[in-house]
Amino acid sequence: MHTLSRRTAELLYLGPEMQAYTRYKWTWDPLLPYLRKSATCHDDVKLYSPEMKIGGGGPIPISNAELIDEVKRFKSRFTKAWKSTGRPMTENIYDGEMNGFAHCCDMICRDQRSGSWLFRLIIDETDKSCKGVTVFDPSRKELNLYFTRSHSLLAKLLMPSGIGLNHDISKHRIITIVDSEHVGQHLLNYPGAPIVFQVKDGYGMENHLLRKGPGHTATVNAYKNGNKGSIGSGLLKMICFQRIDFYLEKDPAYVAAKKANGGADPFSPLGQPHFELYFVSIFITAFQWHFMTPRKGQHTCVVVDLARPVSDPSEVTLNSANS
């Protein structure tokens, strides 16, 4: 799902702020082709309506998150709890509105995860055009891939290739191809807070993935026999985009700030969600690295991201010619 909806959030939630740094209009219609162009969605199990347009024939295969047997009970209970609050269920978050509960689409397609490490651009020295990228595959083998169409590129890929602020990249003995004042600049962080809850046995994945035992053995065997089961899953099945106006309106300081802002929400004035929430039915060590993994019990990790941060912009600079 992150290939489309997360990028949509980053681009569109911050449209008014980003407009100052580009001559293009940061709104839905002109950005939509770029949001879809990188991926091709394979809905093999027919989870979504054919009218939902996810991806645009690009090189990255994605699919709707597989509902593995081990998390069916968790999903059922969570969906029931969400509906009981009266908040919306919004399966189609790909046509311009992101609001409420949705199921995920991810980069694990047909039991294979898409991914490689981008290293640098392949630049044609004659006309200074970008012809492709150099990547590392999972075995760390260097591969040169050449474009058959145009692609958008990230600052950490542009700068080692000689595109960025001259005074920053030249000190690493990188030849400047384009001296651009905006590459790596005007960046906003998305603060997130992981929260862990212990749940009843049968609603977490620890015994299948983190602890030795019959469940773990069965999980490993399933993956060995065709990459099936929870090892081949991203585990992330559910995500929510939530506004909390009902809570904020109880705070006198917020009410005053909203009034001073002409009656518009000072955090998300165009109706953007306040928070993006992920629900994963396991203790996630990557998010809770400073805690010991529990030896017993099962857990749900809720990751709460501030969807539209209001902060001073930061920057990305190089530490070396390679990073």
UniProtKB/TrEMBL annotation:
At the top level of its lineage, which domain of life is listed? Eukaryota
Query: Gene3D superfamilies given for it?
Result: Glucose Oxidase, domain 3 (3.30.560.10)
Q: What is this protein's record name?
A: Uncharacterized protein
Annotated organism of origin: Penicillium atrosanguineum
Q: What is the lineage of its organism?
A: Eukaryota, Fungi, Dikarya, Ascomycota, Pezizomycotina
